[in-house]
Fold this protein.
Amino acid sequence: MRKRLSNRSLGRPLLASLAVAAVSLGLLSACSDPSQQATERVSRDQADQFRENKLRQQDIAKAYAALPTRPTGVVDIDGSTSGSMTPTEIDGYETTTDAAQVNVADNGEDQAFQELCAGRIDLVDSARPISRAEWEACQAVGLDVVQFQVAAEAIVVAIKSETDVGADCLTVDQVRDLYRAGSPLTNWSQEPLGFDDVPLKVGGPNPDNNGFGFFGRYVLGAPEPSQVDLRSDYFLAENDEEARQFVVGKRTLELRAARFDDVSRRRAQANQALQDARTEMAAARAELEIALAERAKGIRDERPPADKAKDQRRVDKAFERRSAARNRLNAVQLRYDQVDQLYRNTDGARRLYEAYRGHVAYFRFSYYELFEDQLRPFEITMPDGQRNCIFPSQRTITSGEYPLARQLLITTTTRSLVRAEVRDFLSHYIDHAQADAESARLVALPDETVRIQRAWLNGDQAPLLYVPDDNAAKPSQPVQSEKPAR
């Protein structure tokens, strides 16, 4: 057992030790120690940094206190409502009991984020995350950012199913080169593609289609997309159905082309029957000539009546054979002509149908899902030089991994999130987001994402604070906040 020493027994040796230490410290201080000086400089720097941080926190606290007071019972939203579900959600929310007043503006995402970080609105409706500069503006006044996702949208670039142009994956830049105004690409083998030697034709929806605007902004980089941003031979489909037919061909053409093998077999059989009939006709004619010659010779030779009668019977049979052969040949020729015409039509349909091999168009993901048995989507790789081909799916689209996807977001701050009316509206939004996304032909969120965001709002789980990551290839990941929003 260890013994504990009393304070009295420790007193005298401790005093002696302290005296020796004091003398030693005095001697050391008289000498110049570089490491000691460095330590002192670090300590001064740390102290200066501490004072700067403290002053900065004081400035942030003052700025936070100076933010405008939000009116009770009012929720203010700004951003971009183009392609957004927010108007629908507001209409539904306003029919609920004790609904707050929801004001919505459409001043664009840039101004909306400025207003959010100035404390003048509660929510930003956007199809992009808050930028680093915008986030820093929020941080400067003490506002932490929380980002809710309500749906997603994506563009799928596809060719006809069961065809091949020599590639399964395209870069974002290659997709842009396919469609941009002035594109010289007319064959999949041309650079920067470098795939199979297949004629290339591109198409897609017209400007009235939501997918047109999305593709123009996010792929072509056109702020206000129009037809002039696309190549001159772009096939402008009136609707998604026509764009799909541009890629896969009409159903009637497909059915006719599918009959080619059967019709080709029938044509071969008809051709063989025709050759047989022609052979029989040639044999019947030859037999008739021989029979007629033999009858004439019998007359000249004055054969007996019995032999002459035999020669005549042979002639009669030869005439009958020729007549039967002619009838058969005519019937077989008619049948062959009919089958041959069908073959030509079917072969033409087949050639036209095969020509669709090089056709490519883009579709909203929701439409592609309906016809995924007919369409073959390209995987898309991120534009960072790394070949990380991403297949379009609900998971890769809602997570933001798929490069031709955008997340539909509602961004707020922890300051607004503590307000009951904001949480009430957001709860309604999240509860109806999946069904309304499907109705709007958007990509609905997975159940787990909805569950987590509900937990943020009802206080069962602390919300994640959004922090932009400028160097990340994937969307920025939020960080856990300290307290649930109640």
